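Lab notebook page, bench 4
Experiment: in silico fold of construct C2
Operator: M.H.
Input chain length: 145 residues
Purpose: comparison with the prior construct
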Amino acid sequence: MELINLMDSCIFCAIIEGDIPSHSVYEDETTLAFLDINPISVGHTLIIPKYHSSKINQLPISFATSLMQTVHTLTGPIEKAVGANATTIAFNNGSEAGQEVPHVHCHIIPRFEQDGGKSVHSLVESPSHPPLDFSDIVMSIKNLI
């Protein structure tokens, strides 16, 4: 798979190119995984595609597939390496979702019994939406696929 669409101004693209050092734990033809420099927990790892795209739904499917294969490959070894029994695996997909670097990246965050962390349902403090009509939402989504 040819590596294309890297951007000069992107910190993750610079890491891919080797212009910025990282604590790499894994690399293959289409992905790179390295320790987060501002970790939430020991072993917090970022996995990025070697293709610049700011949102996962804009990433070519071949790169998205490879990204998830790398997540699958690394989750167990990361947990074992740091003695964690669980992980939170997350994508922040867009700035409104908390994405700070506009290059698709997955967080593998080792979790521990006493870490005080919560589930993804605790991410939004004040949900703002009208009463939900699930059938309308389902139809809207299905019509856009």
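Observations: Residues 11-144 form a domain with the HIT family, subunit A fold (CATH 3.30.428.10). The mean pLDDT is 92.
Next step: discuss at group meeting.
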